[in-house]
Amino acid sequence: MRTTLLWNDNWIFEKEGVREEITLPHTWNAVDGQTGPDQYYRGVCLYSKKFNRPVMEKGQRCYIEFRGINSSCAVSINGQQVATHDGGYSTFRADITDYIQDDNLIEVSVSNEPNDRVYPQRADFTFYGGIYRNVYMVIVDNNHFDLDYYGGNGLYITPVITGESAQIDIKAFITGQADKVLISIDGVGEKELDITQTDHGIKATGTVIIDNPHRWDGIEDPFLYKVTASLLYHDVECDRIYDKFGVREFHVDAENGFYLNGRSYPLHGVSRHQDRAGVGNALTPEMHAEDMELILEMGANSIRLAHYQHDQYFYDLCDEKGIVVWAEIPYITIHMDNGRENTISQMKELIVQNYNHASIICWALSNEITLKGVTDDLIENHRILNDMVHEMDPVRYSAMANLFLLETDSPLVTLPDIRGYNLYYGWYVGEVEDNDKWFDSFHSKYPDVAIGLTEYGADSVITLQSPKPEKGDYTESYQALYHEHMLEMFATRPYIWGTYLWNMFEFAAAGRDEAGDPGKNHKGVVTFDRKQKKDAFYIYKAWWTTKPFVHLCGRRYHDRIEEETEIKVYSNQPEVTLYVDGKEVETQSGAHVFKFKVRIDGIHNIRVVAGNKADEMEIKKVSEPNASYFASADKVRNWFDEPEKKYEEKEGYLSLGSTMAEIQAVPEAREIVDRVMQAMSNKTAGGMGQGIQISEAMRQMINRQPLSKLLQQGGFDMDDKKVQELSETLSRIRKN
């Protein structure tokens, strides 16, 4: 029978000649991968472990199972290579049976070096190196459920609902011999599968009918059937495995969105990366569970597990909690002509290893892959993956998350079954209302094409505050305003089949150096260490939850320079009462957002009450702005003065205040400004904008904006010498 042993202890880690004893999971980028913008270590390190011959009976085999090594590795036993693997996010195994001696040494050479064949290579997140998930020793009989096919467990369960019953199609693949395979489903019964011999081994198949099945029904009722599979040979049980599955049906309607078990079920989603502060991607089960609890507290019912295969433990949590999951491979940002085989193998691993998870509704082919444009090879790669998804899984959708610059008439948009766009209007470009316009335009042009919003968001550093928030200021205040608008937008557009906030948590992006806190993407509504929830967290809670709560926004904006300040409250209750220094001031009725005006002249206690829930904070009137509320302390300005114009305008001549259309109309000016805009693109999102292909629709939007606004949004200081030189140059060029 099978024995599975956790194998995390007593490893030696060696980097650049320095050795240390460690316990897995482990990453060598837990610090340098989170501090940016200097290049974090991307190289080759060695993990090794001495072990004695394991206790094994005659006719057994020994596997070492790795749940995640990033990103390429070679495994050796006693100096002989037994396995290699490319892909940093999936399970693979090494059969070491024929190499074991009395005393043994396993060595795992791990590389996260750049290359042109293993994804990801360019993306807005850190590629942590290491053996960062659990390792197991698995001892099995020679006759066992397959362990060699793309890291799967050999058992595949496909529930299909027909009328009042569910047909459960079961396939099992066997290594060695078997004359009986039994399937037992708790509460249903036992079934003997039919056995056939194939060129690749034994295949066992069968169908179980469940009348009036208990459905897996999302957050409210995530019921799972427990299944046991037993392999017998000569009436002796040789192997046994356990799994779970859910009976559910779902579909996406281009007009009315997502349906679960025949009813409308709007997907209120968030995206998640698998790392956290000081730990990197070497998370413990407790950390995964904490992430799930925070997501559930905010009211989400769906998660986009970006941008790669996540830990099996987290998929299990999604099944158990009723979370609808978008699963994807790290085919991201730029297409590599040498990377096709790696996209195929990573997709096979994703599907094979996660096939039985009730939570998963789609297999996503790629993310923002068209940054540098669309080629024939890129399209062919996607067609191969799309066909493979449909061949391997007859139930779930193929999907794709598109860069907001991809033209909507591209063949890539309608190639998968469902798709989403990643839109950042109101942050990187345009205004927040442009999200509304984009969706209205798309749905009008393509009413039969199901469309979702797979990324949207705005960065905020939790210490940065403002009573006059504006796009690009990195304040907690602007982030909250941005998400207020997005939730209002979703509420009136039911055809958007799913929305996925980018991101639930701040995460490491080693290339970024923004707002005085380098090495991170700050779009999370919870801080990187999971210790603080930003105000934006609570506007989602106000929309998506029913358990009563009330939240005062701006508690970190303690020192206030204005004489009359706004007190903003988020709640899912219909009525909120404000108290200042213990005195009742005002009661408001409404939904989600409540705003009060309060005159201040000293230190004040602010308290709000909604039903039997209350929240309170302290604020203080000050005479000078608190410098810590600004991304750069030397740029503190009086919020109540009109901003000084930093450029000269002469009649008939160009200036920083000219629109991009006016500048583009003059060849001399266009050449100068294009160089500046390229530099701005190159540093956007930690360099992700480098080489970007701008669509015609985006170009038209940019052309409507003044150059000064684009420069400020791109992080240029209007007092900078180079900006002032550009201003002087433009002032000598006549308008066309």
What's the short story on this structure?
The protein has 736 residues and is an alpha+beta fold. It contains 13 helices and 42 strands. The longest helix is centred in the middle third of the chain and has 17 residues, at 376-392.
Mean pLDDT: 93
Structural class: alpha+beta
Give start-end ranges of low-pLDDT stretches: 633-643
CATH superfamily of the largest domain: Glycosidases
The second-level CATH architecture of the largest domain is: Alpha-Beta Barrel
Q: Any idea how many domains?
A: 5
Give the number of helices.
13
CATH topology of the largest domain: TIM Barrel
Strand content: 25-35%
Summarize the main sheet. Answer: 8 strands, parallel, barrel
Walk me through this protein's architecture:
The chain is of the alpha+beta class and 736 residues long. The chain folds into 5 domains: 3-142, Galactose-binding domain-like (Jelly Rolls, Sandwich); 155-245, Immunoglobulin-like (Sandwich); 265-457 and 491-532, TIM Barrel (Alpha-Beta Barrel), CATH 3.20.20; 559-635, Immunoglobulins (Immunoglobulin-like), CATH 2.60.40; 660-730, no CATH class. Helix content is 20%, strand content 33%. The chain is built from 13 helices and 42 strands. The protein has an 8-stranded parallel β-barrel with strand order 25-26-27-28-29-30-31-32, surrounded by 4 helices. A 6-stranded antiparallel sheet has the order 3-2-4-10-7-8, with no helix packed on it. Strands 13, 14, 15, 18 and 19 form a 5-stranded antiparallel sheet that branches. A hairpin with a 2-residue loop joins β14 and β15. The protein is globular.
